[in-house]
Specification:
By secondary structure, the protein is an alpha+beta fold. It has 10 helices and 13 strands. A hairpin with a 4-residue loop joins strand 3 and strand 4. The longest helix is centred in the middle third of the chain and has 20 residues. About 35% of the residues are buried. Bound molecules: adenosine-5'-triphosphate. Adenosine-5'-triphosphate binds next to strand 3, strand 5 and strand 7.
Length: about 325
């Protein structure tokens, strides 16, 4: 399944100006075509580095995974899920783009779109919280990206601020699809059944949905739950369910025990109350969230969610 050792095929079409005939040249891209730079970050089983194409000068983030380590830690499955998911989502605006995959004796390489503005958690931490304009802007993109991946039959299952990267224009790019669930298409209806429930996974304590803790099953509504937690965090500066340890956090999630901070905007309270609902069937879905009054000035149909310039970042003030 992986591209030929150290190479990925790129087909370049060249039109002969005299004859008008199009010739297709197969160019093999490999590690040798990139210059590796600084380390951008470390994952639990990968290192991400800056890489620059020697040909074009274009910057990429290259995720390097050690094969021996992956096999030893039984993580091969997750790497394949990540690759397959990113390939399925490759035309989505709010999803980090996977350009090439290579391998050599020791490692697997993911050539990813470079997101130079870091992750969304760092933004929230830097400013403490975000004002309503910023919350509308970023949450609209996060929601639209979630809607897109659900339409493509993908449930992310670990949406959290660290997994939301920001590109050079401060546009949202969802990443970390290693624990995603790819839903198969129904042959007759040609649609994805997102209610297909999947087992055996735990995401991140603060953003995990009660249904996963209760019966260990989740469907696409777990991503909306996480969205609600993140929207809360934008205003409050911290996620709604947070305790000194994971066990206590899980207790709070199961009881849906959270409190709005003083001065929390009523309109966002109203939306969050309809998202942080224990029963996933009664929880709003992406379409219903998009229709909420909080997004009354947001047009999800004309591309403006992605084309509008970001507002200046400022914290929320009561
Ligand atoms: P884990 O897989 O253990 O949850 P992670 O999601 O942090 O960890 P990676 O996806 O391997 O792991 O990313 C490691 C770090 O590299 C990230 O925290 C981020 O700082 C940086 N990084 C990842 N992808 C990009 C990218 N496309 N552009 C810029 N920086 C990136």
């Amino acid at each position: 399944e992986w591209a030929e050792r150290g190479a990925a095929k790129i087909v370049k079409e060249v039109v002969n100006p005299e004859t008008g005939v199009t010739a297709r040249h197969v160019i093999k891209k490999g590690i040798k075509d990139f210059k590796f730079g600084e380390v951008l970050g470390d994952g639990s089983y990968s290192t991400v580095m800056l890489a620059r194409s020697i040909d074009s000068g274009k910057k990429y983030a290259v995720k390097v995974l050690n094969k021996e380590y992956l096999i030893r830690q039984k993580k091969v499955k997750y790497v394949n899920i990540e690759k397959n998911t990113l390939q399925r989502l490759n035309d989505g605006r709010g999803i980090i783009k996977l350009y090439f995959t290579f391998q050599d004796e020791a490692s697997l390489y993911f050539l990813l779109e470079y997101a130079p503005n870091g992750d969304f958690l760092s933004v929230i931490k830097k400013y403490g919280s975000l004002n309503q304009d910023c919350s509308v802007y970023y949450s609209a993109q996060i929601l639209d990206a979630i809607d897109y991946l659900h339409q493509k039959g993908v449930i992310h299952r670990d949406i959290k601020p660290e997994n939301i990267l920001l590109d050079k224009d401060m546009k949202v790019k969802l990443t970390d699809f290693g624990t995603a669930k790819l839903v198969e298409k129904d042959e007759t209806t040609q649609t994805y059944n997102l209610l297909e429930r999947s087992k055996s996974f735990v995401g991140t304590a603060e953003y995990v949905s009660p249904e996963l803790l209760n019966d260990n099953y989740v469907d696409y509504k777990c991503d909306i739950w996480a969205f609600g937690c993140i929207l809360f965090q934008m205003i409050a500066g911290k996620p709604p369910f947070k305790a000194t340890n994971e066990y206590l956090t899980f207790q709070k999630v199961m009881k849906v025990q959270y409190a709005f901070t003083a001065g929390f905007p009523l309109i966002i309270r109203d939306l969050i109350k309809q998202i942080l609902v224990k029963n996933p069937e009664q929880r709003l879905d992406t379409l219903q969230v998009k229709k909420h009054h909080f997004f009354k000035d947001t047009n999800f149909h004309d591309g403006s969610v992605w084309d509008t310039d970001p507002p200046e970042i400022a914290p929320y003030k009561i």
